[in-house]
Backbone:
């Protein structure tokens, strides 16, 4: 390290100069915060980790019965539970991460007002926690696929990238809400609202092929449409086709959301301690 | 000597909006105030909200210039609201200044509150790792220092107990132990040791001295003048967001105490306390027992009526109130407590505690009272150092026309009768 680097300069209007380096230096804090949330999550519950299994399972059953069984929507040649759970996977990841990120700063108010670290560590650690739940859901899907005798093909190698895209969507949307929530606690009420509406406007309980062709591009303005379609395409083999224009539109929107979210977050984070 | 901390023209300004009731606006309020205002407030958070709100600019700090040499031990003193905490928050990078700049050399570790980031559900062991990471230590570093931390905090037996079952003393011990092992170039400590017991406070002071003799710079805020005197070679006296005086500790503390003592006041109150529970003594009032008058001035032989008010209902029944009487220089003169000394305990719902103290045998000078609340034998819920200052203006118990002054005469006059034999 050079002589200059050992100096820390605190100045009005200047964020941390080595913000990203500083963030990297605090990567262990990210890990510890995630570890804390996972440890604490099922304390004083009776069935503990089973909750991570029960919630997605029940949703899959209900959606399969309602959309597949009662509404008789087309299933793209897949068993309906498989269709639902392949979509449930990214959706629950997104919804869980998004709402936890939104409340994460307020929930860690004492840390923010009493210690220093790049604030981005908090939402980022929240994504890591949601990812653990994601792995549980992935195991459920794997179990279901074995049950139905389905095997994913080569497209499964795209899954890690799609997971990153889903995480980017959650982080992008979450950062906006988290930063706003610090000052305007209204967003505490907005979050569950978005999640609830989102579940029905995103193709979770149904295939996006039920959307008329001329509306499909517009439908992908909801970035989760692209993510969910991508997941189905990657996990379920042959009969699923990806609607590429929509998928790319979703990707672009997610990128904008994320870049804007990080910029907004960084602009406001300097005042978090004063207003939280 | 190179400076560890160089502060130039530092200022911090808060904008107070006179609509405190709507601080964290609810949706209903926002609807009532219309979408236009919402839009403005969300997208232009830094600018004025509109004609409806009146703003007041408040400078918590202004024009601070200060150089702290490497390896120095600097105390910061000043009354509540003088800007001490704001300065520490800027130095710790928690909040940013409005103007000016600070240059710090090396790693900074700050302890502004006891056990920040402790999670009540997690065990002591888990919290050491969590808190260490929050304070900027790496996992390897924590593992290496783990045994030292546990030994310092003296909690071996409770390592796997959730910290929510810890007594407040154990909690403070663990928190300080972690922070003291961060091994920073600059250690910033706010008034956090007031909660611990005397033995532990001495241990902490010892640790801070060790760090300092290893070349670390120490910035220490406290109301405990004897501790500042003992620990710090230089002192910054802050007043109304400015530096009133900066110099060697004897001189500055002397002047500060003189100014503190000038305002012997009958009532002293505070809105919050540096204790995790929130339960604290909110108000102290002194009265002259004979006249019933609220006053900060007494004569030898007067009886002082001390009235303490608590902030809320107590956590449990069966606790007592205590006072510590200090001289002007922070030396302890006397201690008293409702329990067990007088065997009086209070119940949960009791909010006001009264002690008739006297006749006081004190010589002319200024005195400080510290007050505390606790169930006997347990850690204090609250310890309010220098809660109130009073003066004894007259000490001539035998009517000789001469006062016994505090300096050469000691603090106390004991009843005496002289003759030949």
Residues:
């Amino acid at each position: 390290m050079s002589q200059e680097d050992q100096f820390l300069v605190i100045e009005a209007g200047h964020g941390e100069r080595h913000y990203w380096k500083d963030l990297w230096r605090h990567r262990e804090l990210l890990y510890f915060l995630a570890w804390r949330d996972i440890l604490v999550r099922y304390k004083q519950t009776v069935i503990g980790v089973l909750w991570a299994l029960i919630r997605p399972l029940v949703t899959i059953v209900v959606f399969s019965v309602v959309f597949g069984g009662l509404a008789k929507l087309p299933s793209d040649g897949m068993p309906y539970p498989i269709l639902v759970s392949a979509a449930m996977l990214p959706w629950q990841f997104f919804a869980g991460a998004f709402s936890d990120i939104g409340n994460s700063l307020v929930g860690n108010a004492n840390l923010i007002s009493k210690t220093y670290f790049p604030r981005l560590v908090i939402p980022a650690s929240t994504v890591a926690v949601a990812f653990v739940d994601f792995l549980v859901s992935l195991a459920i899907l794997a179990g279901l696929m074995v049950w139905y005798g389905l095997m994913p093909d080569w497209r499964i190698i795209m899954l890690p990238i799609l997971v990153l895209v889903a995480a980017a969507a959650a982080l992008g949307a979450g950062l906006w809400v988290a930063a706003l929530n610090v000052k305007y606690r209204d967003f505490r009420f907005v979050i569950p609202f978005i999640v609830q509406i989102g579940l029905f406007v995103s193709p979770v309980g149904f295939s996006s092929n039920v959307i008329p062709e001329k509306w499909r591009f517009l439908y992908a303005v909801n970035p989760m449409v692209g993510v969910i379609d991508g997941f189905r395409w990657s996990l379920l083999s042959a009969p699923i086709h990806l609607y590429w224009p929509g998928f790319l539109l979703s990707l672009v929107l997610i990128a904008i959301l994320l870049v804007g979210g990080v910029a907004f977050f960084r602009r406001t984070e300097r005042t978090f301690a004063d207003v939280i | 000597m190179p400076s560890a901390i160089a502060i130039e023209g530092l200022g911090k300004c808060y904008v107070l909006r006179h609509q405190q009731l709507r601080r964290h606006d609810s949706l209903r309020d926002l609807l009532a105030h219309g979408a236009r205002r919402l839009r403005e407030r969300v997208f232009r958070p830094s600018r004025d909200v509109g004609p409806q709100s009146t703003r007041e600019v408040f400078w918590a700090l202004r024009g601070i210039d200060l150089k702290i040499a490497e390896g120095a031990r600097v105390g910061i003193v000043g009354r509540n609201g003088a800007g001490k905490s704001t300065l520490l928050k800027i130095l710790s990078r928690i909040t940013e200044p409005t103007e000016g700049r600070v240059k710090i050399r090396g790693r900074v570790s700050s302890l502004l509150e006891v056990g920040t980031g402790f999670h009540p559900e997690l065990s002591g062991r888990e919290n050491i790792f969590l808190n260490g990471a929050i304070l900027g230590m790496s996992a390897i570093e924590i593992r290496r220092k783990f045994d030292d931390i546990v030994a310092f905090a003296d909690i071996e037996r409770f390592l796997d107990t959730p910290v929510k079952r810890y007594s407040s003393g154990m909690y403070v011990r663990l928190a300080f132990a972690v922070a003291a092992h961060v091994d920073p170039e600059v250690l910033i400590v706010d008034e956090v040791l007031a909660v611990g017991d005397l033995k532990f406070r001495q241990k902490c002071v010892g640790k801070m001295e060790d760090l300092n003799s290893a070349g670390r710079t120490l910035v220490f805020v406290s109301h405990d003048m004897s501790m500042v005197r003992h620990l710090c070679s230089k002192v910054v006296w802050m007043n109304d967001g400015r530096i009133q005086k900066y110099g060697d500790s004897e001189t500055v503390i002397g002047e500060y105490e003189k100014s503190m003592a000038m305002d012997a006041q009958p009532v002293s109150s505070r809105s919050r306390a540096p204790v995790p529970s929130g339960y604290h003594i909110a108000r102290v009032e002194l009265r002259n027992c004979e006249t019933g008058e609220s006053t900060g001035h007494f004569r030898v032989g007067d009886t002082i009526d001390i009235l303490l008010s608590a902030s809320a209902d107590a956590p449990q029944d069966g606790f007592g109130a205590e006072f510590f009487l200090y001289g002007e220089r922070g030396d302890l003169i006397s201690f008293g407590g409702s329990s067990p000394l007088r065997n009086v305990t209070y119940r949960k719902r009791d909010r006001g505690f009264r002690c008739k103290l006297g006749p006081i045998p004190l010589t002319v000078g200024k005195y400080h009272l510290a007050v505390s609340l606790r169930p006997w034998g347990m850690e204090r819920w609250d310890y309010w150092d220098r809660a109130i200052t009073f003066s004894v203006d007259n000490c001539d118990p035998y009517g000789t026309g001469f006062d016994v002054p505090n300096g050469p005469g000691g603090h106390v006059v004991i009843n005496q009768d002289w003759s030949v034999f």
Observations:
- Chain B touches chain A through 45 residues (CB under 8 Å).
- Residues 326 and 343 of chain B are 23 Å apart (CA to CA).
- Residues 19-24, 47-52 of chain B have pLDDT under 50 and may be disordered.
- The first strand of chain B starts at residue 3 and ends at 17.
